[in-house]
């Protein structure tokens, strides 16, 4: 009997407050659906079995944890809106004879009702949409589609367990709040915190200072490694500064508007500014949350979409030929023409047997070494050098040594150099080498004859975050020895530093190209086995551009899909905060507008006041989010360089497009919620 009574009261409370509960339940449904879909796709055999599927599954697996963490934070945040509105009702129950235990039972049944509804509908929508999401993901990553429909009961149980824990902890927190609040405080809960705050210049200036410091970090860090490290520091600083500015700075802004007599003493401005300053502390926190969520959506969508749409350009730089073979040697001295000749002979036999003529052939030898280059001096990579206070870790670079003969052959050039002369090209940098000499610390000095332009980069320089100095020399073995001497006395045996590259294009269909690729892999394996200990190279690799492209699109497509999923979750969160903000402020302002109507204000003037109030603060979050994104752009570009996305134009276009689309959506939300706000405040 009692259980049925409290259950009926709980259901009645949800129905009477459906304006608050329905959006909350819809958001819970969306989060549960997204959790199921993303986790289902991370375990999907169709995804795992496709080319690049491992990268997609791993990316989506991380995404499920991100959604879970955000669900915890956001559901706790929005639950505070619900509790604040319901406390007055619970206070009435308490005064009418119910004790705290009875109210806790009502809360238990309310939580049970909306959590069960949210989970059942969330799983139903998740299962229903999972196949559509799978097809969208496969289309993004260029995978083969399957029309088989499956349901993962393991994912259903895992999702249920996670959200049962979340809803249980929320219920526990609500019970604790009710347990330690007296009835009078419950009745007055809607008015608590409405005392007009004073202008806090210290917090406002502190927030502005932190924001300026974060912006300086974002635009000043040029090294990609440092950008990744400082990015999280800058994010924390921006979040803290945003809350300080919206909470303290918005109060200062309202006080300044009140002091401006020409602005303040107008009917529409007078009412709106007076009501805003009356509750600006809480209002500012809500606006800051909207700003942070908006910034997250903009950053996620601009970066993931730029990585996806820039994948083609990145793959073309990393794999400029359809088929490529590389072998690794310890040094130039270990290179033997007879071993390479044997490989080329077997490759020619394979192609001739199929009547295939290779095109755009490139053959080149090069050595990769790392070390610190400060100014025009190469210091090597001793630990003492790496941690030398006079040197900068951001100067850690790669050096690629290319022989003059190979350079002239590959580039159809006719350059000539003396024994102590070199040519230089710098990749992953917007500047050229600006010195006349290049000094190897303790090993010699070379004269720089010229800066090379338009050099086709090797995969090693595209696939790195550091600057790469291409050095063309007539004596690659001698230069290599000097670099190794400066780098490390025990560099011999340190690994394969010198490589031979042999790449070419094939004018054949994809099936034939894949057949040739597999046969070349077998040829390299056979050559290694036949030569045994007499082989001069230590390692080999065979690359198929189409295979590598599918893997790359799989990873970047998975990130784009996850970015879309996370953006949907964040958008629902932002819209719900805006909705609750308008609802709560509408009910708080209604009695003020009722009074204003009694003293002569008509509906047209009320609408003007509402527009003035909403426009004054509503678009501040999107403006601030766009500012955050603009200053974060240089740092985001550096971080994307670490992920081999070096096309700045793609990033600019996708960022601008994301911002434009988001601004339109934000304006639509503004229009819808402002109508709701007007409906509330204009009702009797």
**Shape summary:** elongated
Class from secondary-structure proportions? alpha+beta
| Largest sheet, spatial ordering of strands | 2-3-6-7-5-8-4
Q: Kindly report how far apart the N and C termini lie.
A: 39 Å
| Overall pLDDT score | 78
Total of helices: 23
Helix coverage percent? 55-70%
What features would you describe in this structure?
The chain has a 7-stranded mixed β-barrel. A hairpin with a 2-residue loop joins strand 2 and strand 3. By secondary structure, it is of the alpha+beta class. Helix 9 (224-259) crosses helix 11 (267-278) and helix 13 (311-318) runs antiparallel to helix 20. The chain is built from 23 helices and 10 strands. Helix content is 68%, strand content 11%.
What does this entry show, briefly?
The chain has 684 residues and is of the alpha+beta class.
List the SSEs and their pairings:
Layout: H1 2-16, H2 18-43, H3 45-49, H4 53-95, H5 100-140, H6 153-179, H7 183-187, H8 201-220, H9 224-259, H10 261-264, H11 267-278, H12 280-309, H13 311-318, E1 323-329, H14 337-353, E2 359-374, E3 377-378, H15 383-386, E4 396-403, H16 404-411, E5 421-427, E6 437-440, E7 444-451, H17 459-462, E8 468-473, H18 476-487, E9 498-505, H19 510-531, E10 539-544, H20 545-598, H21 603-618, H22 620-642, H23 648-682
Parallel strand pairs: 3-6, 4-8, 5-7
Antiparallel strand pairs: 1-9, 1-10, 2-3, 2-4, 2-9, 5-8, 6-7
List keywords for this structure.
alpha+beta, 23 helices
């Amino acid at each position: 009997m009692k259980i049925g009574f409290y259950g009926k009261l709980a259901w009645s409370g949800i129905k009477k407050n459906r304006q608050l509960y329905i959006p909350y339940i819809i958001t819970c449904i969306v989060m549960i659906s997204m959790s199921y879909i993303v986790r289902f796709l991370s375990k999907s055999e169709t995804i795992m079995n496709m080319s690049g599927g491992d990268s997609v599954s791993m990316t989506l697996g991380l995404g499920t944890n991100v959604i879970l963490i955000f669900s915890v934070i956001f559901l706790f945040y929005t639950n505070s809106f619900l509790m604040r509105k319901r406390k007055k009702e619970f206070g009435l129950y308490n005064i009418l004879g119910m004790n705290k235990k009875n109210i806790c039972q009502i809360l238990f049944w309310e939580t049970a009702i909306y959590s069960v509804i949210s989970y059942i509908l969330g799983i139903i929508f998740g299962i229903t949409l999972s196949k559509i999401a799978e097809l969208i993901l496969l289309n993004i990553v260029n995978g083969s589609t399957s029309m088989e429909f499956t349901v993962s009961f393991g994912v259903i149980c895992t999702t249920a367990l996670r959200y049962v824990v979340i809803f249980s902890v929320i219920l526990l927190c609500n019970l604790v709040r009710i347990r330690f609040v007296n009835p009078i405080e419950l009745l007055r809960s809607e008015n608590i915190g409405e005392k007009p705050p004073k202008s806090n210049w210290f917090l406002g200036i502190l927030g502005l200072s932190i924001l300026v410091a974060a912006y300086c970090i974002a635009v000043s860090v040029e090294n990609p490694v440092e950008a990744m490290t400082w990015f999280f520091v800058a994010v924390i600083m921006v979040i803290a500064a945003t809350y300080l500015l919206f909470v303290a700075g918005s109060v200062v802004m309202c006080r300044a508007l009140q002091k401006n007599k020409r602005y303040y003493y107008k009917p529409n401005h007078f009412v709106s500014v007076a009501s805003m300053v009356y509750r600006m502390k809480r209002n500012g926190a809500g606006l800051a949350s909207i700003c942070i969520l908006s910034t997250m959506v903009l950053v996620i969508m601009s970066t993931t979409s730029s990585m996806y749409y820039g994948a083609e350009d990145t793959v073309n730089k990393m794999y400029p030929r359809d088929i490529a073979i590389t072998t690794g040697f310890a040094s130039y001295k270990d290179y033997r023409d007879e071993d390479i000749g044997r490989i080329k002979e077997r490759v020619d036999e394979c192609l001739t047997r199929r009547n295939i003529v290779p095109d755009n052939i490139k053959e080149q030898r090069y050595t990769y070494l790392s070390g610190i280059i400060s100014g025009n001096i190469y210091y090597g990579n001793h630990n003492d050098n790496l941690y030398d206070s006079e040197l900068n870790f951001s100067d850690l670079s790669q050096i690629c040594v290319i022989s003059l003969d190979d350079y002239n052959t590959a580039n159809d050039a006719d350059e000539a150099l003396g024994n102590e002369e070199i040519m230089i090209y710098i990749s992953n940098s917007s500047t050229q080498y600006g010195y006349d000499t290049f000094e190897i610390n303790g090993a010699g000095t070379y004269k720089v004859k010229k800066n090379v332009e338009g050099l086709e980069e090797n995969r090693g320089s595209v696939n790195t975050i550091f600057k790469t100095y291409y050095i063309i020399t007539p004596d690659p073995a001698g230069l290599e020895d000097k670099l190794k001497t400066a780098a490390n006395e025990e560099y011999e045996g340190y690994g394969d530093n010198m490589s031979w590259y042999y790449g070419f294009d094939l004018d054949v269909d994809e099936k034939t190209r894949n057949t040739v690729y597999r046969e070349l892999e077998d040829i390299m394996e056979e050559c290694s086995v036949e030569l045994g200990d007499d082989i001069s190279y230590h390692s080999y690799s065979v690359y198929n551009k189409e295979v590598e492209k599918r893997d790359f699109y799989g990873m970047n497509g998975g990130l784009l899909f996850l970015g879309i999923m996370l953006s949907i979750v964040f958008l629902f969160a932002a819209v719900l905060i805006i909705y609750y903000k308008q609802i709560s402020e509408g009910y708080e302002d209604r009695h003020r507008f009722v009074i204003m109507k009694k003293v002569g204000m008509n509906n047209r003037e009320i609408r003007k006041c509402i527009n003035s109030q909403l426009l004054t603060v509503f678009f501040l979050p999107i403006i601030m989010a766009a500012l955050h994104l603009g200053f974060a752009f240089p740092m985001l570009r550096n971080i994307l360089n670490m992920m081999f996305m070096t096309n700045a134009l793609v990033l600019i276009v996708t960022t601008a497009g994301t911002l434009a689309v988001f601004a339109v959506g934000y304006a639509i939300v503004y229009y819808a919620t402002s109508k709701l706000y007007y409906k509330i405040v204009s009702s009797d």
